[in-house]
Amino acid sequence: MVHSKLLFLVLLLLMPLAHAANQAEITKDDPALEKRVMDLSAHLRCLVCQNQTIADSNAELAVDLKNQVREKLRQGQSEQEILDYMVKRYGEFVLFSPLVKSTTWLLWFGPLLLLVVGMGVLFVILRQRRKMMRQAPALNADEHARAASLLSGKEGKGHS
Questions:
Q1: Model confidence over 14-30: pLDDT tens digits?
Q2: How remote is the C-alpha of 40 from its chain's centroid?
Q3: pLDDT at site 94
Q4: CATH number for the domain harbouring residue 93
Q5: What is the spatial distance between Cα 152 and Cα 150, in angstroms, rounded to a whole number?
Q6: Residues linked to residue 44 through DSSP beta bridges, in sequence order
Q7: Model pTM?
Q8: pLDDT in tens, 75-84
Q9: I need a labelling partner for 91 at 20 to 30 A (CA). Which of 24, 51, 122, 142 fits?
Q10: What is the mean pLDDT of the chain?
Q11: Cα–Cα distance for residue pair 24/62, rounded to 1 Å
Q12: Are 25 and 56 members of one domain?
């Protein structure tokens, strides 16, 4: 019993170290490099999380990718060279914002296309409704009086 409590206490004390090990190496001596790493990391998708950039993710792969970005920047590679390397290695899915090209036109312009089509359909429906309202026959005096009495609730209480 004492051994299990001691083991639990040791593991509890080691948890912060395990969390710190899952962080990308931050270079405090070169804040300009770190800013470039974070800026470039914001353009790369975490392949584990998929809805986060590697700048926002603490997944092991994201940490490794940030460290790769940092190392390549230290080696003097340009940001575009690093992006090209990542795309070559992991595919275009690694880019958080896909490139605009013929295979992604629907992704980029689809929402706008749907908005335009929806507005067109709405315009046609409203135009038809307006036309139907103009063509509706006008009420004569008796029909107008009957409608007014029905709306006031005075007529038709005894009829079912």
A1: 666 555 444 445 555 77
A2: 19
A3: 86
A4: 1.10.8.640
A5: 5
A6: 95
A7: 0.51
A8: 999 989 999 9
A9: 24
A10: 82
A11: 8
A12: yes
User: Residue 145 is encoded by which pair of tokens?
Assistant: 């009086």
In a domain, 84, yes or no: yes
Contact 66, 39 (CB under 8 A): no
Using only the alpha carbons of the chain, give its radius of gyration: 33
Secondary structure in 3-state letters for the chain: CHHHHHHHHHHHHHHHHHHHHCCCCCCCCCHHHHHHHHHHHCCEECCCCCCCECCCCCCHHHHHHHHHHHHHHHCCCCHHHHHHHHHHHHCHHHECCCCCCHHHHHHHHHHHHHHHHHHHHHHHHHHHHHHHHHHCCCCCHHHHHHHHHHHHCCCCCCCC
127 or 40, which is more confident? 127
> The domain containing residue 24 runs over which residues?
18-99
107 and 70 co-located in one domain: no
Tokens representing residue 78 in the block? 């340009």
10 domain-assigned: no
